[in-house]
């Protein structure tokens, strides 16, 4: 299978690294990437073909993965508009809607339909990502299987039933690592304020999140039950959780994720206008 990536930045690099580990052949992968340094790095690290702009070889692929920033997408697709012949196209861009991508990729009056919209996240860099996927109804089972297999190279996958859910996926798991890093930063700050040096405070914070996430992933108990098991009556955890509840922490986080979801929809509408 021949797969071409449009954009060879962070996420494309993570995907390519994961795919090679899962047995995809480097000879089948190509990258169209504007930046010379990024092209050299991809070619040297992975042995894939990396070119500055689409040529016949880059276009002659079975799957095209769109991995440029949402704001870069329309201009990046312009050189190949109307030049695809039935390839499966997988977009990992936040916000961008299939209808707009199809219009930008197709010829006038003939939008490209064989599209899958995905949202991975940065733990993909270490093979621990989670990706939400939604396929245009025109994509057949083989196309869905191919998209699922590519994204499964960097972590777990969850299929969405409706395209609107992709903005929710973006808000929960796409942006989610940033919320967790922010939580780690806060726990580390607390450790510093209580007398630990940076290294000690960071170790305590990171390993707590790592251990708790592993326990949640491997336990039959729901997270709420696991939380209750840490919380002794009249103890230390209860004092901390009461302080968080008084600050409205839970509702604040829900509101933050809702803001991200709204921004995803807004981005899609803004960028899809033209
Ligand atoms: N960073 C994140 O946490 C996540 C990002 N995404 C999505 O992944 C996509 C890529 O994001 P990153 O890899 O973080 O961005 P990035 O900026 O690292 O990579 C984008 C690459 O595209 C290249 N590029 C731009 N215009 C081009 C063109 N016309 N032709 C060829 N190459 C071009 C740039 O030189 C750059 O190397 C975005 O659409 C983003 O929404 C999805 C999930 C998570
Ligand atoms: O912040 C963003 O827009 C992208 C999408 C998900 C993670 N980063």
TrEMBL record:
Name this protein carries in UniProt: Pyrroline-5-carboxylate reductase
Annotated ranges, domain Pyrroline-5-carboxylate reductase catalytic N-terminal: 2-95
Catalytic activity, reaction form: L-proline + NAD(+) = (S)-1-pyrroline-5-carboxylate + NADH + 2 H(+); L-proline + NADP(+) = (S)-1-pyrroline-5-carboxylate + NADPH + 2 H(+)
GO BP term, example: L-proline biosynthetic process
Record localization: Cytoplasm
Pathway where it operates: Amino-acid biosynthesis; L-proline biosynthesis; L-proline from L-glutamate 5-semialdehyde: step 1/1
Functional description taken from the UniProt entry: Catalyzes the reduction of 1-pyrroline-5-carboxylate (PCA) to L-proline.
Domain Pyrroline-5-carboxylate reductase dimerisation: from-to ranges: 163-267
Keywords noted in UniProt: Amino-acid biosynthesis, Cytoplasm, NADP, Oxidoreductase, Proline biosynthesis
PANTHER family: PYRROLINE-5-CARBOXYLATE REDUCTASE (PTHR11645), PYRROLINE-5-CARBOXYLATE REDUCTASE 3 (PTHR11645:SF0)
One protein family per Pfam: P5CR_dimer
Record-listed NADP(+) binding positions: 6-11, 67-70
Gene Ontology CC annotation, any one: cytoplasm
First-listed, main subcellular location of the protein, grouped into a coarse class: cytoplasm
The protein's enzyme class: oxidoreductase
Catalytic activity, EC: 1.5.1.2
Family: Belongs to the pyrroline-5-carboxylate reductase family.
Gene Ontology molecular-function annotations: pyrroline-5-carboxylate reductase activity
């Amino acid at each position: 299978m021949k797969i071409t990536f449009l954009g060879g930045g962070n996420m494309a690099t993570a995907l390519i690294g994961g795919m090679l580990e899962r047995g995809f052949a480097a000879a089948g992968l190509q990258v169209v990437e504007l930046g010379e340094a990024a092209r050299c790095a991809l070619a040297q690290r992975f042995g894939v073909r990396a070119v500055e702009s689409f040529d016949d070889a880059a276009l002659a692929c079975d799957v095209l993965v769109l991995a440029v920033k949402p704001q870069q997408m329309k201009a990046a697709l312009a050189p190949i508009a109307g030049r695809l012949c039935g390839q499966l196209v997988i977009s990992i861009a936040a916000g961008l809607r299939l209808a707009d991508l199809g219009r930008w990729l197709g010829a006038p009056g003939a939008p490209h339909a064989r599209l899958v919209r995905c949202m991975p996240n940065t733990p993909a860099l270490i093979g621990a990502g989670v990706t939400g996927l939604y396929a245009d109804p025109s994509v057949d089972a083989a196309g869905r299987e191919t998209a699922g297999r590519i994204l499964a190279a960097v972590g777990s996958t969850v299929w969405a039933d409706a395209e609107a859910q992709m903005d929710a996926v973006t808000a929960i798991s796409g942006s989610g690592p940033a919320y967790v890093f922010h939580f780690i930063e806060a726990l580390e700050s607390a450790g510093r304020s209580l007398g630990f040096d940076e290294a000690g405070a960071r170790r305590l914070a990171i390993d707590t999140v790592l251990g708790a996430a592993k326990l949640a992933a491997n336990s039959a108990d729901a997270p709420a039950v696991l939380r209750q098991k840490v919380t002794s009556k009249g103890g230390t955890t209860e004092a901390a959780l009461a302080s968080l509840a008084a600050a409205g922490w839970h509702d604040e986080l829900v509101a933050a994720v809702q803001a991200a979801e709204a921004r995803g929809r807004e981005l899609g509408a803004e960028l899809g206008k033209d």
